[in-house]
Amino acid sequence: MSATTHSGPAATTTSSRGTAAERHRGRGERSRGASIALHAALITASAIAVFPVLWILFISLGPSTSWQQPHEVLKHLGLANYRFVLLHTSFPKWFLNSVIVAGATTVLGVLISASAGYAISRMRFPGHKSLMWTFLVTQMFPMAVLIVPLYNLLAQLDLIDTYLGLVLVYCTIAVPFCAWMLKGYFDTIPRDIDEAGRVDGLTPFGTFWRLIVPLARPGLAVTAFYSFLTAWGEVAYSAQFMGRDHSTLAAGIRTFASDQRADWGSMTAASVLIAIPATIVFLLVQRHLVTGLTAGGTKG
């Protein structure tokens, strides 16, 4: 009877403690089970994302037939595929062409996007809203639909198989999206700064260049990264508008595959080499990416 009498208050006390612990758990805190489930999901998602990259790197270190027999890679581990790609193919020329095109697209795309985004953010002129909608509409057309009209335009301007022609085409992809993003970022910068610049005698362009651009570095970093990736990894336009001597990396790598067979060793090695510059650019601008994306995506 005594045991029964004391068990009731003890159970009640334990239950009340558990209830109190749940009641006092912060809004941002998670239970142990929820935390384990979240980390398991994140680890799984990370493994799924990283596995293809690691697999390509692994295959590139083996013989050309290692994609059929992956276990042979460890027996013949080496850099033969990389030596072949760098010394016996046109990869260095493709790399130089890509650097020229991607660099020019990045610089020109950032300048045009920043100017357009600032003008739309600060100024009101006839066609203001129509211009913004035009930027959106241009992103709705599939790339395949635009190849023929763009080819005709470049042919009329005698820009087929030229760096300038391909850079202008890539800007038609990068500028609309980047202008929208930068417009949202410029909206977060107080207009008082523009007014202070005008009081000090700066022209509108001087205000933009000296005062606004330094404050917009996170947004410009995102714009530069997107413009660079647009030109660095694009295939369709480069393959159609550029000849063999001006092929970029993404278009040139197609030569490793034919209708009958594909040289997977060379393709995987070239893929790894292509990813290195993009990774370097990402590391250079990564500290600005989150700020630029969130500010430009939540405003305007």
Describe the structure in your own words.
- Helices cover 75% and strands 0% of the residues.
- The model is unreliable at 1-7, 10-18 and 296-300 (pLDDT under 50).
- It has a single domain (89-299), classed as MetI-like fold.
- It is globular.
- It has 300 residues and is mainly alpha-helical.
> In the CATH hierarchy, what is the architecture at level 2?
Orthogonal Bundle
The rounded Rg comes to 28 Å
* Estimated share of beta-strand residues: under 5%
CATH class: Mainly Alpha
Number of helices: 13
Query: Based on CA inertia axes, which overall geometry fits?
Result: globular
The CATH H-level superfamily is MetI-like
Runs in which pLDDT lies below 50 for 5 or more consecutive residues are 1-7, 10-18, 296-300
Major sheet characteristics: none
Separation, N- and C-terminal Cα atoms: 72 Å
How many structural domains? 1
- Kindly report the average pLDDT value: 82
CATH fold type = MetI-like fold
Domain ABC transmembrane type-1: 95-285
Family: Belongs to the binding-protein-dependent transport system permease family. MalFG subfamily.
Membrane topology: Multi-pass membrane protein
Biased composition (Basic and acidic residues): 20-30
